[in-house]
Write a structure and sequence with these properties.
Elements lengths: L17 H12 L2 E2 L11 H12 L13 H15 L9 E4 L1 H13 L5 E6 L3 H9 L3 E6 L9 H7 L4 E7 L11 H13 L3 E5 L25 E6 H5 L7 E4 L2 H11 L8 H11 L3 H24 L3 E3 L6 E5 L8 H12 L1 E2 L1 E2 L13 E5 L4 H12 L1
Parallel strand pairs: 1-11, 3-4, 3-5, 5-6, 6-7
Antiparallel strand pairs: 2-8, 7-8, 9-10, 10-13, 12-13
Helix pairs in contact: 2-10, 3-10, 4-5, 4-9, 11-13
Bound molecules: pyridoxal-5'-phosphate.
């Protein structure tokens, strides 16, 4: 073969995700994995039973309808109405995807032209950069800075150019735990209307907010109903990250555009699980409150443990991640620190630098996931203090 690189230029530099690398390290060393954000306890038993029933009854074992099974699309619209007072048409304004990951990919591939600019706050979820690049577009990062990681709205305004097509937002924000306020969302909505931008909102942690922080879907704000693609997923809310059931809601033209791209990625996925997630979306309020309260308690266990171990802890208002700074431990280089941590302490964490374009910005930040059993978090805290 000639010496042309096999991997195309759009994927140059994306290599293997940090999560695969760190999870493999956890398995190899037997360390506690607080790197990748998956729960160590599966979601509700009745939802699992619903999946088994669907499999046994032959629902979803063959290709489900392209937009998703009607039961799930209807349950998504009921959920949007119940929690946010938002009305969507299940036939034209909902699309079921293979997790939020496919929703993000299909949205970028559907809506972007080569040369378009996409503004996103960094640190960002790692698939954003890759999907923007695969769509041939250019990402324009705006850095969220410690200690509170609030967005700089003046910088956002200044970053919009004639080539800006889309804002890609994530709130509650992984990895910093920042939750956008109504004031911030209002400013973003006004800017989007003024500059005629599409906004894609990654809301997979919509049910995980703490200390009075409230998740407000941007699509509920004035002027945003027809220019927002809202993305969510069952993985994080119901602790079934392996099922890969996600969805988007938005206006019929936007959802239709995304469906066009999505049908040539997976076409459909997760047939029987779609029926189970329809039931999950209809769980009583007690489920959502209990899940949030349990996760808040876990946050406090790990945050206190990390503080006692000498980390600077940025206590998150949302998600199940804690971002810390290791400078106070006399450490400067988060990637090196994380590579050595399993041997040193038997704990795996992720360096936040991988979530930034600006490698200096997150140089000394390390992310820990707290979606683990309380005893596992306590043991991790003990190990880190040693
Ligand atoms: C986990 C995660 C996703 C991916 O969700 P899936 O449904 O597992 O594909 C997307 N965005 C953020 C911010 C996440 O943390």
């Amino acid at each position: 073969m000639n010496d042309r690189p096999l991997l195309n230029r759009r994927l140059d530099g994306f290599g293997t995700t940090i999560f695969a690398e760190m999870s493999a390290l956890a398995v190899r060393t037997g360390a506690i994995n607080l790197g990748q954000g998956f729960p160590d306890t599966d979601g509700p038993q009745e939802v699992r039973e619903a999946a088994v029933r669907a499999l046994r009854d032959g629902r979803g074992n063959q290709y489900p309808p392209g937009p998703g099974v009607p039961e799930l699309r209807t349950a998504v619209t009921e959920h949007q109405q119940r929690f946010y007072g938002l009305a969507f048409d299940p036939d034209t304004e909902v699309l079921v995807t293979a997790g939020a990951t496919e929703a993000i990919a299909a949205t970028m591939l559907a809506l972007l032209e080569p040369g378009d600019e996409v503004i996103a706050f960094e640190p960002y979820y790692d698939s954003y950069a890759a999907c923007i690049s695969m769509a041939g577009a250019t990402r324009v990062p705006l850095t969220l800075r410690a200690p509170d990681f609030r967005p700089d709205l003046d910088a956002l305004r200044d970053a919009v150019t004639d080539r800006t097509r889309l804002l890609l937002l994530n709130s509650p924000h992984n990895p910093t735990g920042m939750v956008l306020t109504r004031v911030e969302l209002t400013a973003i909505a006004e800017l989007a209307v003024e500059r005629d931008l599409i906004v894609v909102t990654d809301e997979v942690y919509e049910h995980l907010t703490y200390d009075g922080a409230e998740h407000i879907p941007l699509i509920s704000l004035p002027g945003m109903r027809d220019r927002t693609v809202a993305i969510s997923s069952a993985g994080k809310t119901y602790s079934f990250t392996g099922w890969k059931v996600g969805w988007i809601t938005g206006s019929a033209p936007l959802v239709g555009a995304v469906r066009t791209a999505k049908q040539f990625l997976t076409y459909v996925s997760s047939g029987p699980f779609q029926y189970a997630v329809a039931e999950a979306l209809r769980l009583p309020d007690a489920y959502f409150t209990g899940f949030r309260e349990g996760m808040r308690a876990k946050r406090d266990i790990l945050a206190d443990g990390l503080t006692a171990a000498g980390f600077e802890v940025f206590r998150p208002q949302g998600t199940y991640f804690i971002t810390t700074d290791i400078a106070g431990l006399g450490e400067k280089d988060a990637p090196a620190f994380c590579r050595g941590l399993p041997e040193r302490c038997g704990v795996v964490a992720v360096p936040n630098s991988v979530f930034y374009d600006d490698p200096q910005a997150g140089r000394s930040q390390v992310r820990f996931a707290f979606c683990k059993r309380d005893d596992v978090l306590r043991e991790a805290a003990v190990r880190l203090q040693r």
